[in-house]
Amino acid sequence: MGKIEVKELSKKQVNDMLLQDKPELNEQLSDKYFASIYLFKDGRVMLVNEDGKGGLWKSLNEFNSFSDEDILQVRALNLEGWLDEDSDVSKILINATTLLSSMLDRKLDYSEQSLKAISKIKIKNFVEEKEVLYAILIYSCGYYVHNYGGQLSLHRRDDYLHTHVPIVLDSFGRTYTPYAEYLKSITESSKISLIQSIELERIKYNLLKE
Fold first, then answer.
1. Phi, psi for residue 125 in degrees, rounded to 5
2. How far apart are the C-alpha atoms of 118 and 97, rounded to whole Å?
3. Environment class of residue 65 by beta-carbon count within 10 Å: exposed (0-12), middle (13-18) or buried (19+)?
4. CA angle, corner 128, sides to 141 and 30, nearest 5?
5. Residue 166 three-state SS
6. What residues make up the domain containing 20?
7. pLDDT tens-place string over residues 149-180
8. Number of separate helices (H) and strands (E) present in the chain
9. Taking the complete model, does pTM exceed 0.70, yes or no?
């Protein structure tokens, strides 16, 4: 199968299609994906998010193929099972550091030496190794806060799984994700290290602070 195309829909387009085409709401798919899923008589599928915007697929087969792959990646990278809105971020940070310490068989802190040791960990399969990946992402936020400032917090992602990710907040409420470029390197097979990723976010922090 070639690349699956999804047509993005505005609120107006969604409302127009609901009124004109009168698609049927599929409760089973809606429950599965935490969004409103509508099936059209011609086979098309429409997903509507909480904000009223949506996406349109040509067929149910294309929707299922796209969604299963998309959800696999989202669930692998959103720290599901580690974080939710009631999480104690300080406790999660301790757990992450403990996991990495055990894996590397050394005591870790927020020094440059510890960061270098963690940066040498190679993630070959982010789905199978997601526990380690999660720990690295959370540690990067802890390292950032300890060395550059800010506060470790949680951010609710704008996705239909209602997931949460760790971020750093500065005193103005601006957000930083020290692991952003590193995470891209994992999913896109580029060569940005954790150290480089943190440094890029540090530069952004300094520029905004000035």
1. -140, 105
2. 10
3. middle
4. 85
5. strand
6. 7-76
7. 899 988 776 654 556 778 899 888 888 999 98
8. 8, 8
9. no
Contact 166, 79 (CB under 8 A): yes
**N-term to C-term CA, the chain:** 50
* Shared-domain flag, residues 19 and 65: yes
Rounded to a whole number of angstroms, the CA Rg of the chain reads: 20
Residues 69 and 95 in one domain: no
CA distance 65 to 6: 12
Residue position matching structure tokens 């005591």? 107
Residue 2 lies in a domain: no
Q: What whole-number distance in Å separates Cα of residue 104 and Cα of residue 99?
A: 9
Give yes or no: residues 155 and 176 share one domain: yes
3-state secondary structure of 14: helix
Instruction: Tell me which residue of 84, 102, 85, 105 sits closest to 94, measured CA to CA.
Output: 102
Provide the domain count of the chain.
2
Check whether residue 94 and residue 37 sit in a common domain. Answer: no
pLDDT for residue 171: 85
